[in-house]
Design brief:
This protein is of the alpha/beta class and 169 residues long. It has 5 helices and 8 strands. The longest helix is centred in the first third of the chain and has 16 residues.
Amino acid sequence: MFATTMCLPSSCEPPRPPGPQRQAPDTGRALEPLWVRPPKQFVPVLGALRELEQRTSDAGGALLRFGHLYGPGSSCASDGSFVHQVKAGKVPLVGGGTAVFSFTHAHDAATAVIAALDRPVSGALNIVDDDPAPMHQWPPCLAPTVDAPGPKGAPAALGLPWAVGMSPS
């Protein structure tokens, strides 16, 4: 069993099936750029990813950009490491919880891989739920479903050393 409600918008209903976010008409290509203004320590990593995407696209290959994976065996499963952190009260809402997460269920990720192998696809595709979830919505929704305390607020400055993929811009 896994914590299905962990990645939900405020309604706490099951997530919709994934699909490329903001895709270009008739192409399915992702229009979402990689992190626009990453912290300095991530600039080389993003540069390498951009180059890899460009080379893969130039060669006619496909790139599947997955959101945070959830489902059985993931860190978001009921016995997963992230859920353990929530239960321990170690997941604060930093800076008001404005960071936004995009999620992908493990089954949907596998389905996307098979679909990409089964048809001619090229370029970068975002394989994520249709409804990105801000931190101020989904951890408070998750907490009661796993018998955890609600997350507490924390100043934005506390999150800076760990700001990995959580920039709202």
